[in-house]
Amino acid sequence: MAAGELVWGAGAAHEAKAGAEWWRSGVIYQIYPRSFADANGDGMGDLPGITSRLDSLRELGIDAIWLSPFYRSPQKDAGYDVADYCDVDPLFGTLADFDSMLARAHELGLRVLIDLVPNHSSDKHAWFQAALNSPAGSPEREFYHFKDGRGENGELPPNNWLSLFGGPAWTRTVHPDGTPGQWYLHLFDSSQPDLNWANPSVQSAFEDILRFWLDRGVDGFRVDQPHAMAKAAGLPDHPDIERAGAGFIEGEASPPMWFQEEVHPIFRRWRAILDSYPGDRAMCGEAYVLPLSFMALWVRSDEFQQTFNFRFLNSEWDAKTLFDNINESFEAFDSVGAPSTWVLNNHDVLRHASRFGGLKIKPTDSDGVGPNDPQPDRELGLRRARGATLFMLGLAGSAYIYQGEELGLPEHTTLAPEFRQDPTFFRTGGKRVGRDGCRVPLPWEAGIGAANGFNATGAAWLPQPDIYTEYSRDHQVGVEGSTLELYKQALRLRKEYKLGEGSFNWLNEYVGPSILGYQNGKILVIHNFGHQPVELPAGEVVASSLHGMKTGHPLAADQTVWLKVECETKG
Ligand code: NOJ
After folding, report:
1. How many angstroms separate the alpha carbon of residue 224 from the centre of ligand 1?
2. Which of 207, 215, 307, 504 is the most exposed place for a label (fewest CB within 10 A)?
3. Is 501 a pocket residue for ligand 1 (Cβ < 6 Å)?
4. pLDDT tens digits, residue range 510-522?
5. pTM summary value
């Protein structure tokens, strides 16, 4: 490539936005309560466990935490099956424990977002139980999607929709006398009936739930599956279920269970509620809507503040894909004045330290990797994951970190079938092993019990693989070059150089199939996708994904570097 040649065109640029709200640039750390820290030693993480470890998150340098569900729940989908939206499940503690956790987080300057699960409840929720015990057509049944079946005796599901966890999206009810009744809709597990968002009573019930938590002091919500909440009137068949399965085909007509326009007025009302509270309360929608120009409609100034950037999350780690996806991100989100989010991991996807270890897998497939599948190359995976994280944390916008990635944790890819808990595993007869491998309890102190300090007893709802001992936090604190110290350093510099609220320009001489570089303020961020070392432009090395990099050194394969330059503008 000749110097200065634009191999793929000019790409996007993004201007710095000064003095803006925290969620435009904040780094949000996802806590998966089942696996973060377990104070009572029963093998399941809990709220007091979280409180006891918040100092370590403060030290990490994040701005906010997002907690996956801790509500009352039969735990059929790890808490995403909520039986009471306004109470804490005894597994995780009490409302008083929640209040203490929140108070401690605020004391440490950390904001707290909680997970709101509005598309479906648990089948054990009082609303669903009341619906089951009420006749067809009753107001109780109107809370959900109950329908008569098709076929002569209603023996066929009302439409052709499929569950995202496998199998049909309908389950038939049974009357107390054993005769079959109506069917109810569940886009996920049969224990997660979909709520009927066309019903104003459902809408107002959730507005009360929002207020309940906002009154308690939460700083906002991560909203689960918002793109599924409204369904096309009459619940028509999906026109192309064979090809689309439970999902959708990007760029083709909107399927009847996803992205319906009716959700937008609901989010506008939620936004007005959030805005009526003091402080900068915010919502991030888990809106799986692509392309990003479409997702941008969900973050217009009176709807969500953020959505997860699934395009970025789904990127294969190669230069052209990232070039395109980053361009698409800035173009789409800038068009509505919203921040882009950047995310590499969450509790539904294969950890990036394994994904990038030579596996051909799309993170959001949620199929998982089991003992009988090809195994990742651990060293390569971690090297690339560190490079990917440093590349991501230099980007302007808001970034998400999933618990354990700061330790470089790999996926548990050899978890035995008897430990599996993800409904995906059961609904597909084990064909898709599911997401348990990224949900394993964290190792805090090597050798403290079988779960390395996750608790004092060693009990763990999912066993750690033996290799987790090496990744324990106490082996990494203060250790130069450890993954934990790399994350801390990157987060500190991100603040120091105001990268979150910063600008973005490609470094045209460092854009091509084997190299990708951009400038944000005084920092140049460059990653080497090739196999050969690359000479770098002038600048002081302030961070590197590989330990021991000095100013003037070339950039090795899979390495990311941050170089400090004097000139803030594009060179
Ligand atoms: C998305 C959540 O992230 C996932 O864990 C859950 O299974 C589904 N929504 C259903 O709630």
Report:
1. 7
2. 215
3. no
4. 999 999 999 999 9
5. 0.97
